[in-house]
Amino acid sequence: MRPCSRVLQSLSHSSRRTSSRPTTTFIGLGRMGYEMAYNLFSKQIVDNPHSQFVVCDAIPDAAQSFRTSFLNKFPAANLAIVNSPADAAALGSQVIITMLPSSPQVQQVFSGAIIPFLQTSKLTAQNTLCIDSTTLDVNVARDVAVEVGKTGAKMVDAPVSGGVTGAKAATLSFLVGGTKESFTLSHPILSHMGSRIIHCGASGSGLSAKICNNVQLSHLLILGVQQIIVAEGMLLGQRLGLNPAILAAVINSSTGSCWSSSVNNPVPSALPDKSPPCEREYEGGFATTLMLKDMGLATSIAGSSGTPLPLGKVAEEIYADVVKKQPELARKDFSSVYKFLTTQIS
Q1: What is the pLDDT of residue 218?
Q2: Theoretical Cys-Cys bridge with 338: which of 131, 142, 260, 266, CB 3.0 to 4.6 Å?
């Protein structure tokens, strides 16, 4: 059951009245955000039992599931659920963290909710730190940071590296963009969720470091293309009568060996000694929508730099088809592209 308005009003009043009962709001409880928020809140409540928490997600059940799980471990925790970013902003939290799908959602949450509220209360804004860990367009991030700064609040972009596994283990790397002062304020908070906190420079620099770093960008690009090729090869082999486990063993012991085959093989029973997402109906892992977004970032940057990506563009189109034609696979691991390909058999 969602906390009543009286509870929220009490939380809002106490959070603005005294720093001894600090309030942290986390907006976006997807696979990454859920684990990040859980680690952050768990450590904050140990540091200060009077800490107060607010969560918000576009999917109400996600927020309720988070609250139930957290209260099972910390029964005395003061954790509220709000229905919208506007409700979350109105509570006047000292720290607001966002972990959203991409640029449109960040623009909507900040321009439509957080910034308008901060503009109404200069005192609240001066005591507010916004941390956005979304991977989004650098220019959008910079524009949002400028508008947040005009209210008197502070903001950093802090995209992450390390995946769901790193989020769960609190070993993420945060690539932070913002002023030195804002970075200093964000560091202890980010340290509760990650093991490496790197100040990359001014606003937008964290995103630039993640998106434009050759190793990271190449990894995303190669991985996205690679998973499709493995799916195609495994499908073809089975159509020719080969047992998937035998076929995978041959690939993984030859020049075709790669992570997408040896660890994230998309065919059930292909890896008898492992448990890739395909063994769980493609639950867990890296969502297809997120791979589509990252492939889009890669092809966009390639276009602006004049770099040809013929396979990358085709791969992006294939993931787009998966999401459009089989939306039930959108939140599944991106290896579910194999399942999509099986429906294209003539």
Answers
A1: 67
A2: 266
